[in-house]
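Action item from last week, closing it out:
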Amino acid sequence: MAFHHHIQSLLLAGIRFPAAPSTETIAPPPALAPLVAAVTLEHAAANSRAVKAGNRYRSAFWALYLLSALAVLCAVMPLALGWDHGSHVMHAWAGFWAGLEVFVILVLGLLYRHGHHRDWQGQWLASRTEAELIGYLPLVAPLVFPAATGSTGNWYSELSGKTMQVPQSGAVNTLCARLGLGVAESLHGAWSDTAFVKQYVAWALAQFELQRQYHERLMLRSEALMYRVHKINAWLFMLTLVGALMHLVVHAMWLSFVTIFFPALAASLHGALAQTEAYRQAAISRRLSLELGNAMATIASHCPTLERDKIRDAIEAGLTSILEEHRDWHMLVRPHHLPLG
């Protein structure tokens, strides 16, 4: 488990989330099976790179914020313990905390520099985009190849109306060019085959449902994380206020510790939460879950009569919602330079 997962699990301790509902596994139509097999390895590789880079980047910014609070802790500990007084029996060890503070700052700086040099953020964004686009190619293909015509361009740009705005990916363009002729041949006349249409619709609905459930869980987790961090920060600032008021009548170094470290910890938690953009992430996931639900309802309403044009339009609308969510996420993450990427 990545570092940021450990931190968030600690912050969310005691909160129980509903278990993911079981969903029936739906196989793609036989005509799409070769395409699914052809993109599986590329999708798995891109997804693995995205997860690795994303974990590094997310863990890095959580570590940077928390290390900042730890540096403040090291700075105030000699005062809180009274080791700064020359007469204290532990005065000789006061330098230990100063050395530890310098060490923490050095670690923070090295982490900052290493993440920037390796471009973890850029790797994450590029790999996640590549994985998303490759993963949906089998769903896109029947919308692009209604006849036996090959395509050497990006399939997403050839959907009806060409209104879908999709990030560019060299790997996806290469796959589309390599697989286009074979896919066009295997899907020739597919929409006139009732068995294909029914299986494709069932499979598309299953894919959309998986995405809808994922964003439902992401929404709940983001909202819970926001609530818990805000609650912790409220207590930290309340304790800071109490410590400041007590300091008016009681002159104790441990009260200085409270009034210095607690606000620093609260600011670090707030900064890390803001960096995750949990609020906007929750709002985007809520919106996508609703849009996918509407698209699925529209698809299902046209299934009994097999209104092919309306089914295709509804599936494309669902895909558009997913890709627009990905674009929003991309725009959400891109400006967040610590700079770790």
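Closing note: Residues 30-333 form one domain.
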